[in-house]
Specification:
Blueprint (H helix, E strand, L loop, with lengths): L6 H24 L4 E5 L2 E5 L16 E5 L2 E4 L10 E5 L10 E7 L9 E7 L4 E7 L10 E7 L10 E6 L3 E6 L2
Antiparallel strand pairs: 1-2, 1-3, 3-4, 5-6, 6-9, 7-8, 7-10, 10-11
């Protein structure tokens, strides 16, 4: 009778099972759980998103977190209404000067090879502004940017504010 399960075979099987278990554990621990998913053309809550349900329609498979009228996508910007992703600062983060802003934008959002960014308070007063220069193009064809925005102190009683992108898109930020 032939022995199919020698020590080497059993070791390889255990190593394979261990690698699969680690990958699944990593996806579970580090994957995004709190977001809105588009299923059959309807937004479905996944986990406990910090943001309200998106008001725009959706395409199946799209993942979006929405705040006010600005949308940030967890996937390729092609599926998002505006195609701009802000990675830093986080939504509603407390802003301190200088404010580091990092993200990527589709080519169509670059005006004369720049992206205009303004920090605006609740009274629509501009506290600071900067033009971001294009960086590298990522694997999806989006242009990365990184810039620092120096700004004056917020003098309003409200801590609400936003980063205004190209005079059109708002990204909420806390101006405490």
């Amino acid at each position: 009778m032939t022995n199919y399960f020698n020590h080497k075979t059993i070791s390889l099987i255990l190593i394979g099972v261990g690698i699969i278990a680690l990958v699944l554990l990593g996806l579970r621990l580090f994957g995004s759980e709190d977001l809105w998913l588009c299923q059959d053309g309807v937004w479905v809550m996944h986990g406990q998103p910090d943001t309200p349900k998106p008001s725009s329609g959706c395409q199946t498979g799209e993942k979006v977190t929405t705040v006010a009228d600005f949308e940030v996508s967890a996937q390729k910007p092609k599926g998002t209404p505006i195609g701009i992703i802000i990675n830093e600062p986080k939504l509603n983060a407390v802003a301190t000067s200088p404010l580091m802003i990092k993200g990527q934008a589709q080519v169509k959002h670059w005006n004369n090879n720049q992206l205009d960014l303004k920090l605006v308070d609740a009274d629509n007063q501009i506290l600071g502004q900067v033009s971001a220069s294009p960086g590298e193009t990522d694997e999806l064809g989006n242009i990365r940017f990184e810039t620092k925005l120096d700004f004056a102190s917020n003098t309003t009683s409200s801590s609400a504010g936003f980063i205004l992108i190209n005079g059109q898109f708002k990204f909420p930020i806390d101006l405490r």
